Amino acid sequence: MDDYAVSWFGLFEAELQRGDAPSSITCYMQEKLCTERHARKAIEKLIVETWKKINEDSLGHGRHALHQPFINASVNLARMSLCIYNGGDGVGAPGPRMKGLVSELVHNNNYK
């Protein structure tokens, strides 16, 4: 399992404790009437397969005929999600790392 999936799965328990909307794991468990372990494996497989498709298309090797702007936006969104959620919930409960990144972006913006 890749680092992104590990970090993403760590959010599941925090979401349940906060009473957030059902996650993909919860939805999968209810839809397929399966255990949390089985749902995690299925979601992990979906993440891996989707990344393979995105990578194939972004390199121009894919058979999916997606337009390059869509591919670029998808890859950038996934990268942004990795940055936000790597190591915990960077939105609902941001830690010092995420606060530092946001502060750096806002206060040291050299992109004028």
UniProtKB/TrEMBL annotation:
Lineage: superkingdom: Eukaryota
Residues of the Terpene synthase metal-binding domain: 12-53
InterPro entries: Isoprenoid_synthase_dom_sf, Terpene_synthase_metal-bd
Residue stretches in coiled coil: none
GO MF terms held by the record: magnesium ion binding; terpene synthase activity
One Pfam family it belongs to: Terpene_synth_C
Name this polypeptide is given: Terpene synthase 12
Organism lineage: Eukaryota, Viridiplantae, Streptophyta, Embryophyta, Tracheophyta
